[in-house]
Amino acid sequence: MARWSETRGYSLVLRQPRGPDQFARVALVRKRTLLGSAFNVREARAEDLDGEGGEDPETLGGLGRLLSWRWLGESEASELLGARLRTLEALGYEVLTERGQTRGPWDWLRDLVQRQLAKPGHSDDPLARQWSEPHTTRTPQGAAAALREALERLGLAPAMLLEGIATIVEIDVDELRAPTPASVAKIDIELLAMLLPFWLDHDADELRALGRRWLSLPNAVFEFDRALVESWLIDEGAIARALLGRLDREGLALIGPEGLTRVAQRAREAEVRASAQRWRERLV
After folding, report:
1. In this structure, are residues 272 and 263 in contact, taking their beta carbons and an 8 Å threshold?
2. Rounded to two decimals, what is the model's pTM?
């Protein structure tokens, strides 16, 4: 039987003024099944990092208990991991750097992006609820807005920001700037769904052009769930306008006849509503 392997994990410490410090290891774990990949979250505990009988956080990998009684999808497990981290932090635990591990210059940005992807956000929009896994995760628009707010406070130049994003998505910065259809398979699609609204709404021309470049790739939009694309088209702003050409040419394939009806009725951009209505008239 396939074993669970750790794909992303955090070690935390609860400092104790009296008595041994408490340590925890929380990790997203994965294993292969006949039906594809299954995910879960594993948590292990230890005491007294430097004392006798204590265990280093590094040794906790593979130990502990699974937090879900059933197998999960990747986004659902990521949500559970984020929720467990927030619970432990509320109890006083602090995330610490692994022993012997040097944090890279962009690890802080990776942590920020992962936290935004994991944060819960409840939406009144049924399309947003449909896009996310059960126990709704934050929508890409909401995560992108939170990421933009955080990065704006830091004042990073676009070139520096692209260097950081290229590092965390693990593709070359030149390929990030000039993507090809093959680039889509190299980037986590949930992360791309968060980055696109962030890029397209950015003040920098370079980042807005980058967002349009990725969105224009023939296969990019089809990697997203239809309900997400539909919610983008209904929303007001840059991403709806950027998708207008794709809607004109490929609307039926992108969101289907029912999606076209909803966009024709609810889209906040007049040109998007008109494009969806033209599709409806063609289909009558």
Report:
1. yes
2. 0.56
